Amino acid sequence: MQNMDLTGIYLRDLDAEATATRKCLKRIPESLYDFKPNPKSMNLGYLALLVAEIPAWITFMIDKGEIDFANYQHFELSTQDKLSAHFEENLVRAKESLKGATEERLAGSFSLKQNGELLYTAKVIEELGATVRHWVHHRGQLTVYMRLNDIAVPSIYGPSADERTF
């Protein structure tokens, strides 16, 4: 399969996963941003932010070829509406980057760094799927946090206990 064929698959994956992500993010109240199910866990606000920002990683991979945690600027978490809008912007940019990606860029490298120190390097095309899976993983975590706070979990791949359709 050619790299450009894979971008079409990833575009469809983004569209498919965006629907469930959108439904989850819209249900997270600001009043619970500090909730942690365990002291070792990230708080709910940061997890929701991570879910909203992971599509932006695709843009960084394709357009910049790296992410350095030392200067990665997270969106300032405030209202649920702003978080949802941030997600939509990241999704649009990720799709634009995928649509504009060249074979050469997809075959090129992506590097993850901390203060300029190389942590990881891989081909962009290999990291796209991993990034979508990482996004889905954290959205799954988010649904657990939702359940622990009695927030209705939306239907994602089929009916949920909160949204039975039969």
UniProtKB/TrEMBL annotation:
Record's keyword annotation contains Metal-binding: yes
Single annotated GO MF: metal ion binding
Source species, domain of life: Bacteria
Entry binding sites for a divalent metal cation: H134, H138
Annotated keywords: Metal-binding
Pfam families: DinB (PF05163)
Family named by the database record: Belongs to the DinB family.
Protein's name in the database: Damage-inducible protein DinB
Organism (species): Dyadobacter luteus
